[in-house]
Write a structure and sequence with these properties.
By secondary structure, the protein is α+β, with helices and mostly antiparallel strands. It is about 45% helix and about 20% strand. It has helices at about 15-35, 50-70, 75-90, 90-95, 100-120, 120-135, 145-160, 230-235, 240-245, 250-255, 305-310, 330-335, 335-365; strands at about 1-10, 40, 165-170, 175-180, 180-185, 190, 195-200, 210-215, 220-225, 260-270, 275-285, 290, 295-300, 315-320.
């Protein structure tokens, strides 16, 4: 028998890796030893992204250069803008499939400023140049037209004079967060006001890309909602069982695809500043959720006690009928230990009665003092 074990963690739950590891060891031990099953976990693959958007953007960059060479500045600018849109939308792909993603991204911004200037779009040229300087405030004004150099120097002084803003990111636990293609481990992070590229990578989830705006002297929190992929997408469909009381059809199908009949799911939460764990057991064959009669909230430190109670004294709600599992008397009637006990009591009573009868018989046939019993 195989049992799937998985714990869901909310974004705002601050629990260190050692606490999580200790909790997982307890649950795995209980499921493997107490239930005598093989423990199965969700295989969360490494984040992967399609390389085709990056390849398409590179082709557009090349095409824009050819158009500009043919004195088609307007078409060249519009073509390069499409390449920039792909880089922004698929920044994770750029980071995963290009050896120097920041250099490529900044270079495209600077080229956009030049192409916009050639297409007589001065406001666009200024905007692209500002985005470039936000990412590289100490840059030199190389390969820029004379008029753009003056704008470059003006913007550079303005950006360097601004006070930094603060960025914080809320996302799934264990995710790696990159700002401007550089990994950030300490949050919140102070950044130059302007547009910044955000990439979030996490095992079992699709890569996340976004462009966030940081304002001068202000703090901003960005919610990065990652979409699960692969097996994690299947197990996430089981999360609704906590609120609905029954697993979804997708959850049951996922469990069957994993070759498991039962699954132990935990939902981490906080109560009175202490981590707690809500636990349910899903039975795919009966499409039921097993809970305790008094609820399923347990202390983080002792999940094995409640987990054992979930199995030995279950209360099951069936999806089809809504009925509960057999009550106490029904379970006792069908218990082999009850009948073994009844048999032991009956045997003891019979032996006691026999001993009493034998004792009374001996009293009746007791010989006189000093006499003897004559056997005939």
């Amino acid at each position: 028998m195989r049992t799937l074990v998985h714990v869901f963690y909310p974004v705002n739950l601050q629990v260190d890796a050692q606490q999580k590891a200790a909790l997982h060891r307890k649950i795995d031990h209980w499921a493997g030893v107490a239930l005598k099953t093989e423990v199965v976990h969700v295989s969360a693959g490494e984040p992967s992204a399609d390389a085709s958007p990056v390849q398409q953007a590179s082709s557009l960059r090349k095409k824009a250069k050819e158009l500009l060479h043919d004195d088609k500045a307007q078409e060249a600018y519009e073509t390069l803008k499409k390449a920039m849109e792909l880089y922004r939308k698929h920044a994770a792909s750029l980071m995963l499939h290009h050896p120097k993603p920041l250099k490529k991204y900044r270079g495209t911004l600077k080229r956009l400023a030049r192409y916009a200037y050639y297409a007589e779009k001065d406001e666009d040229a200024r905007r692209w140049l500002e985005s470039y300087l936000v990412l590289r405030p100490d840059a030199k004004f190389k390969k820029l037209p004379k008029d753009l150099k003056r704008v470059f120097i003006e913007l550079q002084k303005s950006i360097q004079a601004k006070s930094k803003g603060t960025l914080d990111v809320s996302t799934v636990p264990g995710a790696e967060v990159y700002v401007d293609f550089a990994k950030v481990d300490t949050w919140p992070v102070k950044l130059i006001p302007g547009e910044h590229v955000l990439v979030v990578l996490a095992r079992g989830y699709m890569p996340y890309s976004a462009v966030v705006m940081v304002e001068e002297g202000r703090s901003v929190t960005h919610e990065a909602e990652l979409q699960p992929q692969g097996e994690l997408a299947g197990v996430m469909s089981c999360k609704s069982a906590f609120s609905d009381g029954v697993p979804s059809a997708e959850c049951v199908e996922f469990m069957k695809s994993k070759g498991v009949q039962k699954a132990v799911f935990g939902l981490a939460s906080m109560q009175e500043n202490k981590p707690y764990l809500a636990v349910i057991i899903v039975d795919s064959s009966r499409a039921a959720v097993v809970r305790t009669a008094r609820g399923y909230i347990m202390s983080w430190e002792s999940p094995d006690k409640i987990l054992a109670l979930l199995v030995t004294r279950p209360k099951v709600r069936h999806k089809e009928t809504g009925s509960s599992s057999p009550g106490f008397m029904s379970r006792m009637i069908h218990s082999k230990w009850l009948w073994i006990g009844v048999g032991a009591v009956a045997t003891g009573a019979a032996l006691g009665a026999g001993a009493y009868v034998l004792g009374e018989d001996m009293k009746t046939n007791r010989p006189p003092s000093g006499g003897s019993i004559i056997l005939r």
